[in-house]
Structure formats: C-alpha cells, structure tokens
Amino acid sequence: MISFCSLFSGSSGNAIYLASDRTKILIDCGVSGKRIAASLTNIDVKASEIDAILVTHEHRDHAYAVGIMSRRYDIPIYANQQTWEGMQHLIGKIKEENRRYLYTCKDFCIQDIGIHPFAIPHDAAEPVGYNFYINNKKVTLATDIGHVNNELASRLEGSEMVLIESNHDLEMLKCGPYPYYLKQRIMGENGHLSNEAAGELIAHMVEKGTNQFLLGHLSKENNFPQLAYQTVYNILQSRGIKVGQDAIIEVAERNSTSKVYRF
Questions:
Q1: Are 216 and 166 in contact (CB under 8 A)?
Q2: What is the average pLDDT score of the chain?
Q3: Distance between CA atoms of 234 and 240, rounded to whole angstroms?
Q4: What is the CATH number of the domain that holds 135?
C-alpha cells in the first residue's frame, strides 16, 4: 500500500510524506524541523521513523530544514550532485554516511520503494520531480515547473495520483506587487506553472487514465485555493471531463496537512 500526504505545499515551504508498508520517506523539508515533526505526528508518524529525505532542488522553500532533520534524526539525504552543491551552504554539515547521490533519469530503490527522478524545467541547478513505484502502483510529484514538454508529460502518465504545481493566477501575478523581473521569472520557461497551464496538463492526464490530482505549490501572493481549483475545474468541464466523477481534484494547503491518500 502507498500512503501519500502533503505536509506543507506552497511558495512559503514544502514537505511531502510518502510511505510503503516498510519504508517512510520525506520529499523536501522547506519549513522548520519542528513544524515537520509536528505535522508527521498529526498523521501518526514519528520523525524518527523516517528512512530517507529526497530533495527536488536547492531552493530554500524546499531545502531549508533538510540538514536539521538529517542531523536530528540521523536520516540519509538523497540528491543529485548539483543539488548537493547548491544547497550545501543552506543545510550545513552532514555525516558522510548520510550523503547519498542520485542521478537524474536513473532508477534507484530505497528498500521497497522504486524511484525515478526526472528532469523538470526550473531555474535551479538540476531540479527533479519524482515517480514512486510501490506494488506496481505509481505516484508522481511534479512542482516548480516552468512549462510542460512532451517528456515531462510522459513521466506523469500512468500515475495513480499526481501532485502537480498550480502556482499562480496569471492576472493576479501581472497586476500584483512583485517587481517586473520577478514576474518575468515566474512566467518564464523555467519559472512556475500557472493555474491555466495546470488545468490543461491535468486534462491531458485524465485522457491518459489518471484521475486523482492534488494541486500544490500555490503562491501566497498570486493565488488562492478556491481560484486554483475553480480554474482547473472550468478547464476540465470545457473538455467534457466531469470533476468528481472522471477526475478528483483537491488543493494542498500551504500551512496545513492534507489527508493521507492511500492506494
């Protein structure tokens, strides 16, 4: 069985929990170690039970407490070479035996969980999303995506569930308080995925057989949960896809733990 839960998801910080019957892992630790441990307790998991931390990329909202969690609970950290180099100043000293190196696009396992890290278009050193395989089922995490290409879309196909970025509303971003250069970065090819782009991608995924989606990494300043949901809902309805029947769409809250999804 797969257990999947968003502990935190948003521009302020990210941490995801995924487990099999034997193995418990975290993907990213972008809020304080204390908050992550408390959120794990809320779903009846002890932080000391975590077997591994996987890092998507070195930005602070994903890597802030990676070092703290590793040192406090003696947890191995998995990241690719460039991510290790990019986050070293942020995470501090890590025991050598807890420094684990993965290779983008190369499969590996942590006990009974198969993992495929795939490249994503984002302005980090070597950012990745993850496919997880447990008992012939697949769950995918893909946030911090500047745009969708065919290779990326193919990595999402066949998933039982996808946590997909729905970062911003285009009009809110354009009319909002961010400086021009930051707006251009977010809307750029290596920035973040808009609600509209998320909706189009989800429609494609539904047509390919995936029917459960969690919208994540929402911007605090340029989005809000109801708007992200409604935008995706409208796009699916326009394609003849019935939300609640053909597709389940939910939103990961920025500062609260989602329900635990089980497959």
A1: yes
A2: 97
A3: 10
A4: 3.60.15.10
